[in-house]
Write a structure and sequence with these properties.
Blueprint (H helix, E strand, L loop, with lengths): L2 H24 L5 E5 L6 H17 L3 E5 L6 H8 L7 E6 H10 L7 H4 E17 L8 H10 L2 E5 L5 H13 L4 E5 L3 H9 L5 E5 H9 L3 E6 L25 E9 L4 H15 L2 H9 L2 E6 L1 H22 L6
Parallel strand pairs: 1-2, 1-3, 5-6, 5-7
Antiparallel strand pairs: 3-9, 4-7, 4-8, 4-9, 4-10
Helix pairs in contact: 1-10, 2-10, 4-12
Family: Belongs to the UPF0065 (bug) family.
Protein name: Tripartite-type tricarboxylate transporter receptor subunit TctC
Keywords: Signal
Amino acid sequence: MPRFVKSVARLVAGAALAIPFIAAADFPERPVKIVVAFAPGTGSDVMARLVANDMGPLIGGTVIVDNRPGGGGIVGTESVARSPADGYTITLGTTSTLVTNPALNPLAKYTAEKDFTPIAGLSKAWYILVVANTPEAPKDFKELVARLKAGPTNFGSSGQGTITHLASEMFLYRMGVKNSQHIPYKGSSQSMTDVAGGQVLFVSDTVAAALPLIRGGKLRPIFVTSPERLATLPDVPTTKELGYEDLRAHAWLVLMAPAGTPTPVVAKLSDAAMKAMRTDSMKEKLKAQELESMVMDSKQLGDFIKAEAPYWNNFIKQSGIKVEQ
């Protein structure tokens, strides 16, 4: 090969290798968007806004939240999977959007492993089961189970295939109840409003989503899935206390980018997210929302998701649960 051609080839190769690093150095040149696949007011939305506020200054730019609810989280999540892999559109991923929806719903045309690159782990949220705070609604766990077995009944969730749906299905499966109809909503705020109004018997959701209406006297908590009682709800028993330790549903909240996002860009976002999550002020905000810190880097998060998937996938297979199309 002529010397001139070799030199040009080396220059082209060197330039190609340098592109990701140049991109990372210049990144971000416009706002970074965190897509939340659920409505405002959900646990995912709360977490996204907390981390977005603190990540902006750390990456030298602006981070905004874009709510795209629908399809139990599929609509917003898939939109990110099909977005340009440049780091400007990422998602606040959850157990349901990344694990259970692809396993349960044929409308989910993506997988976490194939279509996403892990950025960072953020937090996890334990679940709570609530009913209306009215004289007619069940007063405790025993009354709820009796009402369910007397059936037929119904229950709400923030969407098909979400952990708010599957946590309730797991509870019903464990109680041997087969005649409770699932009523999916487009977000926690709608399902919470309807359970408070008596349109559905119960709802399972994150503590953060239910807490405002519990404090407002509209909802009655029946149990929490956390290992220990919560400081903010000390009178609410755990599933372990009730004799059902295996009912340990919880949701984790993470940041994911489209597959193929340059490694240096992912590293910059990951570093900012982890720094944001480790501040004392963030720890206090998490505590106020009953969220537990779950800080992980990109590799740790990828390994974590692979290890977590079998818990839900096995339940889906054993129960034979299906989503209505």
